[in-house]
Write a structure and sequence with these properties.
Blueprint (H helix, E strand, L loop, with lengths): L8 E4 L2 H6 L2 E6 L9 H16 L4 E6 L4 H13 L2 E7 L8 H8 L3 E5 L1 H4 L5 H10 L3 E3 L7 H13 L5 E6 L3 H9 L5 E6 L6 H9 L1 H5 L3 E4 L12 H14 L8 H13 L8 E6 L5 H7 L5
Parallel strand pairs: 2-10, 3-4, 3-6, 4-5, 7-8, 7-10, 8-9
Antiparallel strand pairs: 1-2
């Protein structure tokens, strides 16, 4: 069993929270490990066990050029001593890209493919071809989301103290699905979609989690994407910087920053009743800040 220490929970104090009588805590999963943090570790943990059980000595997965998942998988390979392969949405590798550069330093073999080929990443024929090409590889979907990943996110849910509302950022839906599996039915779960037109994820989450299919205690909020995946406004980035300074909790504007800004707006709008205890899951991904600086999207 691969394991790291359990991350702390940090209470946030702010006049807005006091005025609205809201208790807000952050599950600091960004502190699990310096390089394999947040939901990326949660999703990898049980997949690494499955890889071992299947007697595979390599791991192959998929991601974009600035992918947190590629970064975390490459680190895991270096740390635990197995070969990793990244099928990168291309068509070419940018040698100066900080995420890909780091992955290469960790020993990951990078295989750029054009966007048409990359769209086949869920296609069984394409996956069978890859398995033939890499016979020793355990193939993990983009973002690390599969049944084994849900076990790690379920474990996270079961480690939390009682709360009224649990919130997480939502990209592929795996983290939210796993949290639904692990949380009691009286807890309200909110996923903040970080991409545009994310309503399709509702069905995907139901496919991933039986409890999501049966229970009504969860919701996907689709109006806080701030322009779409990887996009963010000056206002959101300002919120992230201010929050980081005030509470010593670093945020990036793609996942956890977007989620917390949504929570903040909902509190301001009176969405939560007085006395509500909220836990927001910081899903890590801070390595993404280097990519944003590299692209001159932030200073």
């Amino acid at each position: 069993m691969y394991t790291f220490f359990e991350s702390p929970i940090q209470t946030v104090n702010h006049p807005l929270l006091t005025a609205r009588k809201i208790h807000l805590s952050i599950k600091r999963d960004d502190l699990i490990h310096p390089q394999i943090s947040g939901n990326k570790w949660r999703k990898l943990k049980f997949n690494l066990d499955a890889m071992k059980q299947q007697r595979k000595s390599e791991l192959l997965t998929f991601g974009g050029a600035f992918s947190n998942h590629i970064h975390a998988t490459a680190t895991a390979g270096k740390l635990f001593g197995f070969k990793t392969h990244g099928i990168i949405r291309g068509p070419e590798l940018d040698e100066a890209n900080p995420t890909l550069n780091y992955a290469k330093q960790c020993g990951m073999s990078l295989h750029p493919v054009n966007r048409i080929t990359y769209r086949s990443r869920h296609d069984q024929t394409y996956l069978a071809k890859l398995q033939k090409q890499f016979p020793n590889a355990y193939i993990l979907p983009e973002g690390g989301t599969n049944a084994a990943a849900l076990l790690g996110c379920k474990e996270l849910a079961q480690s939390l103290p009682s709360c009224d509302v649990l919130v997480c950022p939502t990209g592929s839906g795996g983290t939210l699905a796993g949290l639904i599996e692990g949380m009691p039915e009286h807890t309200q779960l909110l996923g903040v979609a970080v991409l545009k037109q994310a309503h399709y994820l509702i069905e995907e989450i139901k496919q991933l989690s039986n409890k999501a299919m049966l229970q009504q205690n969860w919701q996907l909020l689709c109006d806080f994407h701030d322009g779409g995946y990887g996009k963010f406004s000056d206002t959101l980035w300002q919120f992230c910087q201010t929050f980081t300074k005030q509470h010593a909790i670093p945020l990036e504007p793609i996942y956890s920053g977007k989620m917390l800004y949504a929570v903040w707006q909902l509190i301001e709008q009176g969405y939560f009743s007085e006395g509500t205890r909220i836990i927001a899951v910081h899903t890590g991904g801070l390595q993404g800040l280097d990519g944003l600086k590299y692209r001159r999207l932030i200073n």
